[in-house]
Design brief:
The chain has one helix and ten strands. The chain is mostly beta strands. About 30% of the residues are buried.
Length: about 140
């Protein structure tokens, strides 16, 4: 028997979901830049071009980030930004590793607040593509 949550998930009503994942992808190679990445896969040099908002209050946590290739000699910093400011939800992919996570911190986002991912990718030997995800837990409103 389908539950209300099952029905809501089928029609895209995520506000009643327990939690869900949002993914991001740099869509290109990162090298010697600060880039802003949208959830859904768009990268830009300007944060305003990639911000998204949720129609409900939520906790965002469980940041995981991966690069397809180690940088070669530098570290890549990945941070959730909310309302134009960096948050404590951040991780650093330390060369020669290709993955990092922040499973400790969480950020409260109110309905309509704009947010995105910022990555600081210094000039490494190897240009690299970044992918990752966060967990979103809708809050009762």
């Amino acid at each position: 028997m389908a539950t209300q949550l099952d029905r809501d998930a089928r029609i895209g009503n995520f506000a009643s979901a327990t939690k869900f994942m949002l993914c991001f992808n740099s869509q290109g190679t990162l090298d010697n830049e600060t880039a802003y990445i949208s959830f859904g896969g768009y990268e830009a040099a300007a944060e305003a071009e990639v911000n998204i908002a949720l129609p409900f209050d939520a906790l965002i946590r469980g940041l995981r980030a991966n690069v397809h290739l180690a940088s070669g000699d530098v570290d890549d910093a990945v941070t959730l930004r909310v309302a134009g400011a960096s948050t404590g939800l951040t991780c650093t992919i330390v060369d020669p590793a290709t993955a990092a996570s922040d499973l400790t911190h969480q950020v409260y986002v109110t309905a309509g607040q704009l947010f995105c991912i910022m990555v600081v990718a210094p000039d490494g030997t190897n240009p690299r593509t970044l992918t990752g995800s966060v967990i979103v837990e809708p809050m009762a409103g």
